Predict the structure.
Amino acid sequence: MNQELGDWHARQGQFQDAEKHLTECWQLLKNNTQVPPIEMIGAIRDLHSFYRNWNLSEPGKGHGVRAAECQKECETLEQKYSERLKPKGRAQILNDKVWRLIAYRQPNLPVARSALADARRALELDPDDALIRNTLGVAQYRMGYYYEDYCKEAIKTLTESQQQQGENPYDLIFIAMAQQQLGKHELALAGLKKVRESPRLIQWTYDDPQLEWVIHEAENLIERMPLPPSPSHWPWETPNVPSTAPFAPSVDD
């Protein structure tokens, strides 16, 4: 109940009430030895996201520091329970880690390589999870920025993800961007048009506001439309994102 109340208050912009409920939820789970590790990790990850978003709305009030503390606690728990987690739990942890690194920006080459290795490992642990397959496809696309053949692999993987789970906007968008990187502009335009014209687009972006940023990235790549002027206005952060140019390539080989 605390989790649901906290999420509701956060959506209403009632951050102090949200903090109370989400913190209580975390403390209850943390002090209960019967709680599965994956639930504890999920709770502290939610608290991290909350403080991160609060910091974006009201910067300079210490919320960013608390977000960093929660992130450190999350990483500590993941390390502590890594051997006890079932394969699907380990796969989810790897998948979440990779998604934070690659979903909303072009990482540098070492990060892209590491993310791809972790994405492959996650799918080995849970080959039936279509979302993990989607993450692998996105990781392959990010590597395709440096080596074109990975874009071909990305299209194959993301197509398999679609076949596994049905129509998914991230599959559609990253397939379109991979087609553009391979010089298939008309196919890329058709893919982007399919996303825009989908009757599910409003529901998709309502359920997942971050999707809008990926659509902007695709529009910038395929149609040369400008990106939003300030990513600080968007309600999320990802590791290693420059504050003024979230998709600026940074090749550190």
